[in-house]
Amino acid sequence: MSGLFTRWRRERLLRQARRAPPAWHLPPWTHRLPPAARERLHEQVALFLAEKPIEGAQGFPVDESMRLNIATQACLPVLGLGYDWLDDLPRVIVYPDEFIPLIEEIDEIGLVHRREEIRAGEAWSGGPLVLSWSDVEAFPIQGEAYNVVFHEIAHVLDMREGGEPNGFPPLPEDLPAARWTEVFSAAYTDMNTRLDRGEETELDPYAADAPEEFFAVASETFLVTPSRLRAAYPAVYAQLAAFYRLPFAVETLFETPLTDEMISPISAREGKPEEPYAPLTS
Ligand SMILES: [Zn+2]
């Protein structure tokens, strides 16, 4: 829940935003949204840009158009839920490309293990969202159920108000917890069974890693290529539609063929470095 002061300050920011339109335009793909949804997104993005610093890691320069792109993608998943769902997210850190996060695990006898996994994004409970710019910039790619921002924001929603990342975000009252658990457990089990048999899966196999990854990958697929999710797991699709309660038909956004001006430049991807970026140490 947002405090009174936060709400007052946000109201003031929104009044300002409505009086004087900001000197920026939402990314081209947002023109596919109905006008009211686009206006709401505009307001949420204005708040995001005012409240959450978006900064480059290790001196990587992040300009206003990059901030705008990140903020817009971050706000889209909460367009129906409400901007408050991003309250636990204090800031965004941007790497130029994929990076190796600093993950330390302490085992039962107290030894510290460093895991070095290359990532395009990362989300921590109450911590920053960490993103690879070349992955953010490449979106949307026609037909690919890939969006690192939607994926990481799903983790933020999952961990809302200090919750464990477990694929079970706080649910709206009209969404029974038992049904959510039943649907997601069945799909997760099915996905693992298929992979064990060596079968192809509609969803990215990363979804079978853990229940929280299933929720994040399913959310990403729901937002980018919803028909693919509906074909593979119709009950999961129905739960996510009821959860995200987006004020537009999700099929109309990225699934119909993208026009040239809707597609982001992918030049940054072509110049991928040989090695991923080093861990963030600050
Ligand atoms: Zn994930």
What can you tell me about this protein's structure?
- The chain has a 4-stranded mixed beta sheet.
- It has one domain: Collagenase (Catalytic Domain) (3-Layer(aba) Sandwich), CATH 3.40.390.10.
- 42% of the residues lie in helices and 8% in strands.
- The protein has helices at 4-19, 35-51, 64-75, 133-138, 148-158, 177-196, 211-224, 226-232, 234-244, 267-270, and strands spanning 54-56, 92-95, 103-106, 112-115, 121-123, 129-132.
- The chain is an alpha/beta fold and 282 residues long.
- The structure holds zinc ion.
- Zinc ion binds at residues 151, 155, 213, 216.
What is the topology?
Elements: H1 4-19, H2 35-51, E1 54-56, H3 64-75, E2 92-95, E3 103-106, E4 112-115, E5 121-123, E6 129-132, H4 133-138, H5 148-158, H6 177-196, H7 211-224, H8 226-232, H9 234-244, H10 267-270
Parallel strand pairs: 1-2, 2-6
Antiparallel strand pairs: 3-4, 5-6
Bound molecules: zinc ion.
Features:
282 residues, binds zinc ion, 10 helices, single chain, four-stranded mixed sheet
Number of helices: 10
Major sheet strand order: 1-2-6-5
Bound ligands, named by name, code or SMILES: zinc ion
The helical percent reads 40-55%
Unreliably modeled segments? 266-274
Report strand %: 5-15%
Task: Give the termini distance in whole angstroms.
Answer: 30 Å
Approximate shape: globular
Query: How can the largest sheet be summarized?
Result: 4 strands, mixed
For CATH, the homologous superfamily is named as Collagenase (Catalytic Domain)
Secondary-structure arrangement, i.e. CATH architecture? 3-Layer(aba) Sandwich
Overall pLDDT confidence: 87
**Number of E-type strands:** 6
- Which CATH C-level class is it? Alpha Beta
